[in-house]
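protien #1 (seq + structre)
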Amino acid sequence: MKKSSSPLVTAGVIPLVTVIIPCRNEESFIEKVLNSIITQDYPKDKLEILVVDGMSDDGTRRIIESYVKSYNFIQMIDNLKKIVPCALNEGIRRSKGNVIMRMDAHAEYPSNYVSRLVSALIELEADNVGGVWETVPGAENIKAHAIALAMSNPFGVGNAKYRLKTNEDQPFEVDTVPFGCYKREVFERIGYFDEELIRNQDNEFNERLKRNGGKIFLVPDIKIKYFARDTYTKLWKMFFQYGYFGPLVDKKLRRLTRIRRYVPSAFLLSVFLLPVLSIITVKILLISVTSLTVYFFINLICCVKITYKEKKVCLIPYLFYAFLVSHFSYGLGYLKGVLDFLFFKKKPVPEKIAITR
């Protein structure tokens, strides 16, 4: 590491890093992330791994316990509330590190992941840094392959830089990064993750961080292998929940955030609300039909371009449906969030919202 004026490094001392892994029922993936950490090139005596488990009822806890017995830098913490922001906050409260790093159980990481991000955090004098997702199929079938491709395409996820391939070779500032590697002082300065946000808590936190003068950098040479959902049902549930908590994020921040988060719901309104208003004038119905036609055309063009690159024409209907599911579920979720959180002033109830893979 280069010398830095950052308080993270004093007289060349390598900072202690606390890695927090929120998980629940990740029997199929938890070993992969733990093995990714064990093979890190960062000094193990400078690592503290806190696996915060949401009372898994599959084989996840048994697997974690076997690693706890074998490695003295790995601990398991119970997350009785079973949701991600509570897991993160409990991990932060129990952590000892000067650097707090979140790692997702549904991903694999390169061996230099921790050392590279800590180095970037110091050298860039940043408050949060993260790597780029390489979205891979969550299963070995054409449907899962199509979902992974859709989730790494601008038509599917907008301009979220960390989800897309970039030509940049140097770190650059962004509005958010996946998972996050933070200076501990960030949490002392702006507080912890909002526990009402069962989804999107990282978006709200990073927007709050930026508003308070924080700097967030994407480090493009660090690639995270992220396993996408492997069925359309799981994809629908995930994007519906992302959309649903969007209005609550806006409410808490007291402003709109990124335009990509509003496009799906605006599209749905043009498709379903305008036909109702067509009783006023048929021109409104024409707008709705045009909107839907343009959407289907763009969707098809994107599918053709992707399949041409992949050399698999059979992907087209699966891709088309993956885009459709993600856009419609997110848009419907956002509109329901507007009704629940902005109009009816409801409070989210974690017990009634199933966070599933």
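ok now protien #2
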Amino acid sequence: MDWDKLRIFHAVAEAGSFTHAGESLHLSQSAVSRQVAGLEDSLNAALFHRHARGLKLTEQGELLFDTVHDVFAKLAMTEAQIMENREKPQGPLKINTTVAFGSVWLTSRIKTFVDHYPDIDVSLVLADNELDLSMREADAAIRMTTPTQPDLIQRHLMTMDYHVFAAPGYLKRYGMPKTVDDLDNHRLIVYGDDARPPVADLNWLLTAGKGPDEARRPTLKVSNIYGIFRAVQSGVGIAALPDYMSREAGNLVEILPELRGPSIEAFFVYPEELKNSKRIIVLRDFLLAQVKADLV
């Protein structure tokens, strides 16, 4: 099979159309179509179902795409390893973490890293779904749960303890809760029903000091912790937040300090193939240094 045709086929399969693939490859739509047709002729098999809304892989096309995609991932890994043989860390470095942790903690520190390593091209992918590191969807990740993939190396970064916080403006308007029972008369912000928090029972504030059948009624439900954080900042109500958010915000007030929620463990993870990567090593050391500085 011709490698150029496979490369173009891979681009078309990912783009879902000849036109979009041509744009990414800097080729005309007709040139892309001819290359795919030539590949289909050589294999004597249709690789795409063609219809008005775009292209869909046939069963044979899916089989070929899975193989070609795996080859591309391995080539990207090889390219990264070759680049690591140079004297200093350089090249692309894609980091995946959650929207909340990336927006509040990581982005406020990443300037130091990019200033110190100007030859590393950093890309942050902030998403609450985990990217597949083994398929090189990202080079490294900061995860809020213990990784279960056997081919990933993990390093514990920090323990995130949950405390109860409110904005000064909210407390000025509604008063400071003195006891757990006072929460019955306050506006509480919690995870929504369709949220997927990293640990169970993160809505424990609704039942703190009460029986399981006496849960408080929340004022607002939000699907992720970053949204809860922003709502607390704006004075909507009271919520349980990981303590790093309070440190970063600098304007939240901890209330009822005797209340403690569940803890979340954060891990720095990366594929075993990148264990000798200079980019991964310097990123790991940077993150550990930043966590240590937070504890001082």
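Residues 59-83 form the longest helix (25 residues).
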